[in-house]
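Collaborator request log, item 7. Partner lab (contact: R.S.) asked for a structural prediction of N-acetyl-gamma-glutamyl-phosphate reductase to inform their binding assays.
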Amino acid sequence: MRFPLSKSLQRNSLHGMSTQTFRIGILGASGYTGADLVRILSTHPNIEISLLVAGRSAGRPLGDVFPHLGHLGLPDLIGLDEVEWPALDLDLVFCALPHATTQEVVKGLLHATGHSLLDEMLIERREDLVSAVRRDIKIVDLSADFRLEDPDSYETWYGRAHQAPEFQSAAVYGLTEFNRDAVRGAALVACPGCYPTAALLALLPIVEAQAIDASDIIIDAKSGVTGGGRSLKESMLFCEVAEAMHPYGIGHHRHMPEMEQELAKRAGQEVGLSFTPHLVPMNRGELETIYVRLAKGQSADDLRDILADRYAKEPFVRVLDPGVAPATRHVRGSNLCVLNVFEDRIPGRAIIVAAIDNLVKGSSGQAVQNMNLMLGLPETTGLMQAPLFP
Ligand SMILES: NC(=O)C1=CN([C@@H]2O[C@H](COP(=O)(O)OP(=O)(O)OC[C@H]3O[C@@H](n4cnc5c(N)ncnc54)[C@H](OP(=O)(O)O)[C@@H]3O)[C@@H](O)[C@H]2O)C=CC1
Ligand SMILES: CC(=O)N[C@@H](CCC(=O)OP(=O)(O)O)C(=O)O
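Returned to partner:
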């Protein structure tokens, strides 16, 4: 059976698997999330990696920067200004660039390809480019640039005015389990931050059921050092991180408005949370211990039932057996989020625990999950690897 290629996928009638290949690019391929995108996509059956962009590492082979990826035969890293967008004819681009860098890059990319999003924004596009591209390029952004819907909130929390505010409203917030349909049709997906990913998966169903007081949530979070990226920072040096642990961003971390924005959409009441992240001496992984006040008549078991029901059919979110504490070793290298709920000694309170791998479900894995939907592929393609243990 044949389908038009641009609309549907050619299907292998024997195995029910798509045989179509999509050309993708990775901007920020010499960073931690870029490396994990390459790792995950290198075994994805429908993806050809056609472009790898870097900053300081531009001009070097990928295997020079990451010897563990050197055998894949991928293109060398190049600079942004060397990319010939129309000629590359990409289906999708991942932006794994530092936040604040991405907004102008995305704007430039939409102009350089004559993207039809420009029509929606009533911005003139060059007709010669329109005819040169096969179809609109799709963008999956891993940075924070398009997560906040309100330009003023962006300026308040990121300390500078947004450079592409006209595209903020076009972006779909890519928490896949809650925005599947919108992600499928999106031109630009803003993947959630790693801390919001774990917090929202733990809290959204419970807040939606009005089973807790959403104005009184306390999130105590711990992250591995890769959460801070690969560029050199004193606070990330081995001697500063090993055998130590410290909180940061106390009372003013930029992930708070992101969590509140998404919780508020479902809470039906005022949302208030305290959030304190800590840096812990491990490479990857993230654990959140969340303290909540129960709504009248609710128990910790009720919260657990709400999560278990909500995620029963989700491939990447698991509620562990009663009493089993989620740990980063349960998810390492996988696209899983593991959750559980515990009774507090103080009546009327409960404790929710969530664990993810910040580089997989917290960034690159979730980005590929969104890519699969945007390209019309089964959501789990390339993402079913079991966690690495111990
Ligand atoms: N690390 C994590 O756990 C998570 C990260 N994120 C977000 O994902 C994005 C990437 O994060 P991460 O991989 O950790 O960051 P890294 O610092 O490890 O990597 C950043 C990448 O961007 C490249 N880059 C920087 N400036 C430019 C430029 N001007 N032109 C071209 N390339 C440039 C760097 O190239 P080079 O090194 O060669 O200069 C590098 O490849 C960030 O926005 C981050 O906030 C989101 C969720 C989790
Ligand atoms: C350990 C560490 O530094 N973590 C980062 C969060 C990384 C992330 O997921 O979020 P963004 O995409 O919003 O950067 C931080 O606290 O800023």
